[in-house]
Write a structure and sequence with these properties.
It contains 4 helices and no strands. It is mainly alpha-helical and about 80 residues long. It has one domain.
Length: about 80
């Protein structure tokens, strides 16, 4: 099978940039623990995002929705509400 040839990538890094200087404060694996722990990112619609001052407020609201949904399920199934 013939190997596809890819066009050379344009090198946008200017020759006057010193990578040693640019990367001197870099920390290898800085976010590795967060990555391992797993993070779920959710993009909120702009109108929804404006309703919450921070991520904790979003989480608190969602926890309330979860509790309300559980109460609704218990009511519909006839089991006593806790």
């Amino acid at each position: 099978m013939k190997e596809e040839t890819r066009p050379e990538m344009d090198d946008e890094l200017h020759p006057e940039y010193d990578l040693h200087q640019l990367l001197k404060d870099g920390v290898r694996g800085k976010y590795a623990e967060r990555y391992k722990a797993g993070t779920n990112l959710v993009l909120l619609a702009p109108d929804v995002a404006r309703a919450f001052p921070n991520d904790e407020a979003v989480n608190e609201a969602l926890r309330l929705v979860i509790q309300l949904a559980k109460i609704q399920v218990r009511t519909e199934t006839g089991t006593p509400e806790a």
